[in-house]
């Protein structure tokens, strides 16, 4: 659902897909090929939210701020299931893991990976290409070229998802039995452990 607030109407690029069970309110700008999943709450009521091209905001994420703040997700930012971004700035091609919490005035650099369940406290500055984990968050190492490539491949799938959703997504009644000709889904992306195992085997 898209809601006006205080005369601000969200701006959503025609190539983006915002799930009808998401709530986008007020001073929000959503760019090209952005995916917003069901249950996401993107609240531009007290301040602004800019979600640049190629980002994804997955199921049950919350993006909000204190009054007067603009939250920005730079190009290709990847916000995992259930994460909260409150008054922060997320750099380009950065991954925020599932159920992570990014607090006010945090700046996360480009190409970072913030681990699942991580708590990034107010005012923390994270340089480009760092791996951040824990509660409270700690920088533990650099993001390798391999890690960044794996993250970028995953984000690329989400960048293709809006068009796929428009082409084939629709509400239906459930089947009661499994049809004999039910197709098999192909694996589109290996998980990180499988990627490392393949790399080791090919050395």
From TrEMBL:
The record, for Pfam families, names: Hexapep (PF00132)
Locate the compositionally biased regions of type Basic and acidic residues. 191-203
> InterPro entries attached here?
Hexapep, Transf_Hexapept/Carb_Anhydrase, Trimer_LpxA-like_sf
Coiled-coil intervals, chain numbering: none
Question: Looking at the record's lineage, which domain of life comes first?
Answer: Bacteria
Q: Where is this region: Disordered?
A: 175-203
Q: Which CDD domains match?
A: LbH_paaY_like
Quote the protein name from its UniProt record: Carbonic anhydrase
Q: Which organism is it from?
A: Gemmatimonas phototrophica
Q: Provide the organism lineage as a comma list.
A: Bacteria, Pseudomonadati, Gemmatimonadota, Gemmatimonadia, Gemmatimonadales
């Amino acid at each position: 659902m898209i809601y006006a607030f205080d005369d601000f109407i969200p701006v959503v690029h025609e190539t983006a897909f915002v799930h009808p069970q998401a709530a986008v309110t007020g001073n929000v700008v959503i760019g090209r090929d952005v995916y917003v999943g069901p249950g996401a709450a993107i609240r531009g009521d007290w301040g602004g939210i800019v979600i640049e091209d190629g980002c994804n905001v997955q199921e049950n994420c919350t993006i909000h701020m204190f009054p007067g703040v603009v939250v920005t997700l730079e190009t290709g930012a990847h916000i995992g299931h259930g994460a909260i971004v409150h008054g922060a700035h997320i750099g380009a091609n950065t991954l925020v893991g599932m159920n992570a919490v990014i607090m006010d005035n945090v700046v996360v650099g480009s190409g970072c990976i913030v681990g699942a369940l991580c708590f990034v406290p107010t005012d923390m500055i994270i340089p480009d290409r760092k791996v951040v984990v824990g509660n409270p968050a700690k920088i533990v190492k650099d993001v390798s070229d391999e890690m960044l490539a794996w993250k970028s491949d995953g984000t690329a799938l989400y960048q293709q998802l809006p068009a796929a959703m428009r082409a084939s997504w629709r509400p239906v009644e459930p089947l009661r039995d499994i049809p004999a000709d039910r197709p098999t889904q192909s694996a589109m992306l290996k998980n990180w452990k499988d990627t490392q195992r393949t790399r080791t085997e090919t050395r």
